[in-house]
Amino acid sequence: MNDPPASRLGAAKATLFSLLTLALILCAVEGGWRLVCLLGWTLPPSGDRSLDKEWEWVAPRLARGADEPLKKGPNQHDPELGWMLWPGYRDADNTISASGHRGTTEWRKERAPGKKRILFLGDSYTYGWEVKDNESYPAVLAERFLPDVEIINWGIPGYGTDQMLLLWEKHGVSYSPDVVVIGFYTRDIARNQLRFYSFLKPCFTLEGDNLTLATGTIPSPTELYSDYVSGKRRIATEGLFLSAYFKRKLQEIERKDRGLSEMEWRVTEKILDRLIAGIREAGAVPFVLFIPDDEVLKREGTDTEVIVSRLVAWAKRAKADYLDLCPILRAKAKESPGPLYQGHWTALGHAAVAEALFHALQARGIP
Description:
CATH architecture: 3-Layer(aba) Sandwich
Helix content: 40-55%
Strand content: 5-15%
Strand order of the largest sheet: 4-3-5-8-9
């Protein structure tokens, strides 16, 4: 039996009223949000993770009215890689040699006669953030286990796998190593789709199935700051704040469900393929060290384990030697006299990794 016309009209009015109410609420939220941002109480949403990080970097500098050079800690600006280690930097715990590597040894590109050489690429875990020069796992490996091997630590804090690839291609290959150890922190995958992390950085995209560098010359901090002062760049959302907000939320949901986005994985896989191929073409042996987040010591079934399982599958397909540190660090944590992680690895964590890496290399006849 059909509803009478009056009933249908009433339902239509109720629906229209609900839609108008919702529209007014959304307008009020949009307007209030814009007012709060205009007053400088918070940053507007960008809808883009890289731009969020860029605005977070530039906003306090604009508020202070002062530029700062990118020489924070051991890093300095580099127009191709975003940043590199600052040759000659020194503080109580950190030394960067004149050759631009962690530690006091000045490494020449020419190898000592009869010596094997291992080159380490990585981020802050490989660099040894928050520990002394001689406590990083490459340094412990050299001192305790492989004293007759030249071990170069070229871990750089904040690096993604994309920057490691470019560092190898532009500089690392000239050091003619026998082995290249890639310290792959599982959360580095997210950095491979960012144009800004610690600072502006190179970023690859896929054109079809081909890896393409999407960034050109990277401006210095002074140039970036000047662009915002002049109005060439602005902290301003394109379109509606709510649209930008929900765009980012959808990205976060995908990452929460899978531990990474499919595009992040596809780009990372291509980067690793190219890096492994380049190392082999140079006559060296690639070895990948899968570095887990500390969440693996707190619970089972973590995002880190999902990522590592995919990385292990990739390594088997690429026929690349690797070491998964998840089970090793879980076992070590149960017997360790102190914590293995405090933000990054502690000296105990680095010592445990150096020992495990030595045994893994030895088992494979490397170097």
